[in-house]
Every structure is written in structure tokens, then in C-alpha cells.
Queue: 4 jobs
Job 1
Amino acid sequence: MKIAVLGLGFMGSTHLKALRSIPEATLCAVFSNDERALEGDLSHIQGNLGGPGERFDFTAIKKYRDVGALLADPEIDAVDICLPTFLHAPVALQALRGGKHVLVEKPLALTGADADELLAEARRRNLVLMSAQVLRFFSQYRVLRDTLPALGHVRHAFFRRRCAAPVWSKWLHDKSKSGGGVFDLLIHDIDVALWLFGLPSRVSAIGSEDLERGIDLLTATLFYADGSTVTISGGWHHPKSYPFSMEYTVVADGGTIEYSSAGRPPTLYKADGSETPLELAEADGYVEEIRYFVQCATANRRPELCPPESSVEAVKLALLLDKARDKNGEIIPCHL
């Protein structure tokens, strides 16, 4: 399958590295408005995790400076959209209308209406649409999903994700373009909660937002009809130096599973006092995510492991939690 990567920032660079390990996909084109990046020099690219960017050999692939021209190229089967957040929905919609399968970085869109439109267009044209909710392909989170069914009723789950406010792109601090730190960052954990537990019946949230200072924090609670609760917490903690981290603790009747990127691998703690590290698959989540998309697109098969319907719900739930934060802890119905 011939695939094009649109956007050569941090995520574009990450996806390019992953594509080198996927023989089923052929990188045939790239798009950027950064001339240095179009020449393959991504060494100046920054992100909130991982190392510096690399240099890529783009001599044998097409280099586009116009999105419309790329999307009109009949040789391109699928696009991998790693553009700024406010461009996700309009470019994905244009790509679907041009007959391309679409992998689009999270979040799928900035509004529920735009997310719904993308889903409807993909269905109408019988094309694969998948949002890059990569935690579904991280071994630390897949082992959680695989282990939970044997532990019985889940009482409470806690997911936290934090990082420094980004300084490499000014648009990220414009909430109309990025959704803010809470929307852009915690949508990963919102998606995991939906993946594991489905939609809650009610929600509440507290937090603080001061994007000029690089602060955007939220602690939300999802309430489920069976009495279980999920807490999602984190956001931006000042610019530049604050380290990225992610973690979870899930308490079920049969034991507690805990993980932290700060050095605690997923471990099951049981009531009998046993402590069992969970066996992780040796796989790169970005490689597995993009390989899965390519397989689905090649077979024109619905991406059951990361369905677009769930990504639409993640967008809508993230927006609801942001509104709930303004109500300072008031419990509100979850009507999406």
C-alpha cells in the first residue's frame, strides 16, 4: 500500500520512523511547509517525549507543498495525517472525499459535529478511517485490557498523564486550534477509559486553566451504572522542564494492577500478598498502530481494534469534561 505522511513535526517524524519497520507500506509522498523538513532534515524537530528528530532520505519520494495536490495524486492509497490539530478534520474530510484511506493523529477533530461528519463520510465512501489512539497498541495498556477480565468487578481506575507545556509551536496555546493541553493530552486516557469500560452515565471535573502560563489541569471522575468510577487526571505543568509521565492504577475484586512510566512496569498485586509482573509483548506501539491501519486499509476492513466510532466518543467526552471543569465538581449527565 502506498501511503503519504502529511506534516513533518514531532508526530510526523515518529510515524516516519515506524513506517521503516512496516514492509506492507511504501512511503510514496510527504507534505510540509517546512523546506528543511521536506529535504529530509528533521533533526530540529521537538516533542514532549522521545529523543531528537532524525534525517530521512526523501530522494525517491514525492515532496508536496500543497495539500490539495497531494490528495489529488491517484498513486496514493492512504494518508497519515500528522498536521496541527485544527487541520485534522478538514484535511481528513478532503482526503476521504478524494478516495483515500485515512489515519489521522488524535484527536480526530476539535468538535463533535466535525467528528460525526468524518465518520459519516468514511461510511458513505466505504473507506477506512482510524484515529491514532496509540495507547490501544502500547503493550503496557494492552496487557491491562487482557488481564482485567480475570479479576472480576472493577471498583476504581485511575489514569494520569502529565507533561510540560509545549513551547515549540504557538498554535498549541490557542485553545481554538489545539483544544488546550487537557483536550490534546488527556484524550489518550479518555480513550482508554472508553476502550476498557465504555461510556459513563455521569461525570464531574475540577481543575485550572491558564494557557498563558502553560498551565492546563483537570481531574475528572467518570461514574458508571454498576458503581465503579474512573479518575482521569493531568495536563500541562508549566513549560520546558517538567518531565512527561503516564501511569495507571486499576482496583478490581481480584487484585490491583499498577503501572508508571517513571519506572514501575505493569504489576498485579493480589489479596493473598502475591506480586506478579505482567508479561509485556516486545512491540513498538507506533509501529503496531500503523501496521494495523495498513492491514485494515489494504483489506478495506473496519479497524475493530480502534474503531472511529469510539474516537468520535472520545472527542465528545473530552469536550464534556472540559465543560464540566467549569462547573467545579458538579456531577452532570453524560449525554453525547
Job 2
Amino acid sequence: MQTSVSAAPPSADLGSRLLKRSKIALSVVGKAVAALCVAAIATAALAQEWAPPGPIKMIIAPAAGGGGDTQARLIAEEIEAAKGWKIIPEQVTGKGGVNAVLALSKEPADGTAIALFVSPALGYNLRAAKAGEPDIATPITTISGGEMAVVALTSAGYRDIGDVIDAAKTGKAIRFGVMSPMLADIAYLLGRANGVEFNIVQLRGGRGVMDGLNAGDIDVGFGAGIQAKAVKAGDMIELASAKNGPLANSPDAPLLSDFGVKFYVNDFFMFAGPKEMDPTARDAIAGAISEVLKSEGSKAAKFINKAFGGIKLMSGAELEEFIAERYGAVGDLMAAASN
């Protein structure tokens, strides 16, 4: 005997009750969305009205006179002119920005202290130093990124990173310049994935890599944008992109992922505040930085466009997610390089 089970059609009363419940639910959702909108508008209004309770200490991680230091000081000057806030730059270098992060962590969270560093200071460098988790600081905004590429002199005759690997396989000793332990790990993994061993040379910053190439002390090296002028002039060539996408000046260059390296470098110069920074202060400072970089005639914007390939602004939840994702990814990078 077959038994079939079917649902009985709802009664008119049940249908009426369901319709009423739906209207109530939609009303609740609508009120919640409205409340969020009101809160966002209120936060934005408070951020526009906010002013620091005293001078703002701007901790700068990059060395004095370099590109990172220059863009920080230009932004400070333009915020002072536009907002009337007093900003006092202070250099705190060392450990790839970690020293600046640790100095920032001791400052008040009321908006009177911010720091500029490169995002690995809250990623690889922080993790390698065992100095804490990314929440040791409050991300405010990025300002610029870098065209991270493997670079060589055009006169060396390499067309792409594959030629360098082929040369190493024939017995040529390849001196590979890097400017951080993270990039040393990536260079090591590139060699391991392709059955060669590079002579990895640690240098001081992108300028050190460029000087090393020009002096003949290294054969290839990582550039983070400082190579742009030489590439445009034809004196240097970008052999591969270390990003997760093409390079602005060399869109046809292969990715390191094409040669077995699953890790990439998408890093930014960024500002941050101390842990648990006042959200109104954070948003106001992020807004002030954005305003000066978008203003016509901004010296900071002109410098960043020329030296770093363009302004790159990211803030709020998007920036927090980026920092968290990179912190996890560099843990995987360290593990791979230690095997």
C-alpha cells in the first residue's frame, strides 16, 4: 500500500497572521537600517567637527630624507595649513616600522599621536619580532602603495625573471638584493621552486637596491616603485611583478606566481593610531589626510604620484580586513620558508 503525505493549504487566518508578521519584520529591519544610517551620518558629522585636544605627534618610521619621510612631512604641512592643527613629526626608525608601532602604543588614544609606516610593520615585521598582534594599533588610512618588482639593469640582458633562473641553472652566481626579511623569504622560495639558489644580499631600503644595481654589487633586486624613473628611461627593466597583478610600467612582465611562488607583496604606506583609538578622532584624521591628497595643487599628492605611482586610499573595515589577512598570510610565508 502506498502512502502519500501532502501539506494542507493554509487557512485564511494563518495567511493573515503570516502577512502581519512579515510587515512587522520588515518594519524592524527598516528601523535598524535607518538607525545605522543615522549613526553613520552622526559619526561623519562629529568627525568633521573634531579637533585635536593638543598638538599631534606624527611618528615617522622611514628614515629621514627618504620617500616615506617626505610624503609624511608634506601631508603634515598641508593638514596644518588646511585645518590649523599643530603636527610635530618625530623619527622613530628600526625593525621595519616595529619600533614606530611600539612607540605609538605608549601614546594616548585621543588623536594626539599617529604614526606612518609601511603595512608589514603590522604584518611580517611585527610577527617576526614577536611584538604583538595587529590590534596593537588602530589603522587610520593608507596613502600610497608600491610597484613591487624584481628589477635589473637593462644592460644585463635579461628579458624576464625566467632568464635569470636559466642563468643560475647554467652556474652563474646570481646576487639578489632584498630590503627586508620578508622579501628575502620570497627570493629564497623563488629559487627553491625553480631548483636554483640565489645569493641573497640584504640592503637598506629601495635606494640601497637601486645603488647596488648601478654599482654592479648585485645582479637583480626588489624595487618598490623607486625604479619607475629608470624603467621609463630604459635604464632598468622590471623582470617580474611581486604583486598579485600586473605592474603599471611593465604590464607584460610575468608574475612571480608564474614561477611557483604563491606569496605576493601588496603593501602600503599607512597611518595608524594607538590601540582603541577614539573612532571620531580616527575618522577625522583619515578625512583630513584624504582631503589634502585630493585637493588641487597638493604638493604631497604630486610627490606621491611621481614617486609611488599614485595615491591609494583605504580605510575603515576594508583596511582592518587587509591588515588581518596579511598577518595570517605572512605566517604561512614564514612557515614555507623555514621548511
Job 3
Amino acid sequence: NVTGTPTLAPRRVVLADDEPLARDRLRQLLARRPAYQVVAECRDGSEAVDAILREHPDLVFLDVAMPGLDGLEVAEAVADEPPVIIFVTAYNEFALRAFEVSAVDYLLKPVDRERFDRALARAEATFARGSAAGLDAPLRNFLERLRAERAYPRRFLVRATRGHYFVRVEDVDWVAAEGNYVALHAGGRAHLVRDTMKAFEGKLNPESFVRVHRSAIVNIDRVERIEPRGHGEYALTLRGGARLESSRAYSDRLQALLR
């Protein structure tokens, strides 16, 4: 520019809400702020995940209740490199309690201008605190808190080259460690989910799944035969023919099945 002062690029924003009026309201509130640019609008959770991964926004206004994937599932799907997220919700006592005990911000519908301005100020404070690598800590803490209070998930989101799909928990035969991923073996296929075995084990009901090795978790209902190998180790045959080896470190859990 004329003065030689560098011009900062506007912050990239994604709006994700299945209600057109709600998106209109957010767009109107942002229109008076040239420092923000809406780069995508999404009508459901799958569109939101695609847009976030494609556009790499700085900020996302994310509706909690959307078709397909809800806002929490969207946040989990992009948690590897998350933007700053401001959740948008109709009144829900559980959701508000979860938001209020965390560093994650939220807006109530219909969105009030003054409250909107405060949420943006809080987002800017988050940007100012550090690099993008550190921005996900409040989000991760929030998701962990919600996960602890919610029931075990009934399905898992799997990214694919052509969008996303779900694998139902009851369809999973066994789970294997695959580097930075876990492989959900179901229906004769392996479905990769980015997670650690320890974290993923915590998402499974221990009444239905048991860890038999540091790199394997099995669905108890799929175990057809257990053969002792000595020294606390076992060979497991699952329905469908898959064979797994248990390790001594997890023998107590497996022996509990035999009682």
C-alpha cells in the first residue's frame, strides 16, 4: 500500500449450520468486519468437514446439531489441525454446561450482536496466544470432557478419498494399531481412523471389547475359540477366520472371559 504498512490478509471463516436463517445472521454480523472473509457455508456435518479440510479456515462457526455429523463429531474429525471453533447452539442445558467449564466459546441462537462481538474478541485472543499448533488444546480438553460424560459412541467416522462414511460399533470384529491410525476390521475390510490405541480403547464399552495385545482389541462376541499357548498367552480365532495372538500383559482381561 501507499504507506508501506503490510496489509494483513483477512481471517478465513467457515459457517456450518443447517438453518439458512442462522447462516444469514452470522454472515450479516461478519459483513461489517472486513478483517473476516467467509470462504465456505455448509448445510450439514459432512460438508463442514470437507470445507474445513479443503479451505483451512482460521475460524469456524459450528452448529452443534446438524444432519449427518453433529458439531462435536465435526470437531473430532478435524482435531488433528483444528481451526478456532465457536459453537452455535439452541438452548441445551447439557451443552451449555460443557461449554462453560471449558475454554471453548459458544453462541446461543438467535445470535445477539453484543455476544457475537465478545466471541470474536475471545477468538482473537486465542489467535494472539500462539501458533496454530497450540490452538487445539482448549478444543481437545472440551471434547475429552464431553466424551467422558456421553455414552460410548455408536459409530465411528472414517475419512475416504470421496468424502466420509460411518462404521457402526457393533460391526467391528477387531481393532489393530496401524502407525498413527487404528484399523477397524469390519465386514471383511479395514477402515482407518486417526487415533491411538489407548484413546480408542477408551471409546469402546469394556463389556463388549477387550484389549488382548498392545496392538489389538477384539469384539468379545466375535471370539469363536481361545487356545492357550502357555505363559499366559492365547491364540484367538474370530468368526470369519481371523486369528490373533494375545500377549501376557493382557492375559488377565482375557482370562476373565474364560471364567
Job 4
Amino acid sequence: MSEKQARFCHLCGARLQSNYLIYSNGLAVCERCERRVPQCSQCKIPSRQLTMVRGTPICPDCLQKLPVCACCHEPVLGNYYIIGDSPLKYCETCVKTRPRCDICRAPLDAQGKVFQGRGTTYRCASCFSTAVTTSGEAQQLYRATSELLAQKLDLRPAHLPGLHLVERAILIELHKEAASLIEAVTALGAEQQHLLGFFRRVDDDWQIYIEQLLPRALFQAVAAHELAHAWQATHAPATQSPEIVEGFAEWVAYSILLTLGEQRAAARLTRRNDLYGRGLQHFIALERSQGRPGILQRAAR
């Protein structure tokens, strides 16, 4: 910086003497301001326009560069969290102290919903915005999903099971009664023990139970998975391995998500490395080599 440009202190306007500092952004600061004006905690440059963020002084330039927590909407200092495949960023405080959505695992902000029943149900504003909230809507989507299975996959269960929307606690009880978790559908997010659906057949009584307040696309994926189990009840031998049983049902859910244009949700299923994910990959590979007729043939033997 030339002598003319650095003639006066940019903070107090005093004429610069022999001892002064010029920072990397061109700010010229006299010796007195250097001692007395507080510095930004990020860039260490003195400023009279500091904003306190989480108890820490930040200058306007650094404030603009900081990520903002999608939950509390405060700038994030230090590390931030990204949950699943969402691009949103969350601060450590929100992730560790706020209730988390049962579906996507994001921390709940003021618009999040909490429902009390036999247990507590948490839904973030995004997941709740498309949630299936009434029995009538659920029945309509359920029938539409059944029709999609018939039209797109030639998959027709011998009977259309009755549909019940239930709390998560009831689903867990149903699995305990069956003494098996073989027919569980786990969450598409990070929590792998979140049961979403259950198919139960007792002689001629066929019923499907789905967790209440699921987003529409997830509801249809769970319905498709459980309807696939209903199809297996009369078309597939009981001796099939769990990987084939669940892999086929997961492939049906995956195919329905693609049909609905939910590519990101479908891709989440392929990234799982558990029984469901391995089974799904087997059927995806089979579809590439033998087409959908080959899928149904393998699922039936």
C-alpha cells in the first residue's frame, strides 16, 4: 500500500505515525486501535462491526462465509453435520440436543411436529409436509400402489390385505408376537431399527400394518414392500432364504419409487449393506440380465 493510501487509520481516522499495521485485506490500523479494537475470532482482523455469534465475535466478511444451521438458523462455528443425502447443514448443538425426526433423522425446529400416543412420534416440517394424515388418504394411496404393482410389475397378490395405520410401538409389538423381524422394513434414513411396515397372514385373514404419518412416497414404498410379501404368501415357497424374500420385496419398493419419480429415495435403498440391501442388489443385477420376467421367476422358486 502506498504512503498516500495508508495516511490515516481506517478505524479511527487518526493520522498514521511510524508504527501501524496493514492487514491482508488492506485495512490500515494505528497502534492505538490495534491494542483496543476487538478482533474477529475467525480472521483475527480488528473491526468495529463485530456480531456476536454463539458468544463469539465475527466480522461481516466472515459472517457471510459461515454455513447456517438449517434448524436453529444460526451461523455454524467449527464443524457442522450433514444427515443422509440432504445438502442441509446442522450445528452440533441442534444435532445433540433437539429431538430428531423419526424418518430423516434431522433435528426438529419450531415447525417440527411431536405426537404423543403409546409412544412419541417425531416429524420434521419437511417430512410432515407430505405426510399421510388421514385413513381415507392412506386407503386411496394403498389401492393406487396395488394397481401400480399390477400394471408395472404384473404383481397381483391373491387377496388385497386390509390396511391399518398404527403407531411404531404397535408395529414393534406385532413383530414380537410373530417372534421374527424378517418382514421388517427399516427407515430410509440413518436409523436402521425403525420398523415401518408388517404383513400378517393368519389363514384367510390378511392384514398390512404401516406406521402412521409417513411421507407419501415412503408410504407407497412400504406398502409396495408389504404387498410383495402378500404376493409371496401364495406364489413363493416358504423355504426361500431371508435374503431372497426381503430382496424381492425391496426390489418391488425400489421399482415403485422409480415409477413415482423418486430417484433419490430409490438410490438410498441401493446404498444399504444389510440383508435388504444385499437382496436388492441381487435382484437389480438379475433384472439387468434377465429382465422383469426373470425377477418374477426367481421370486417364485
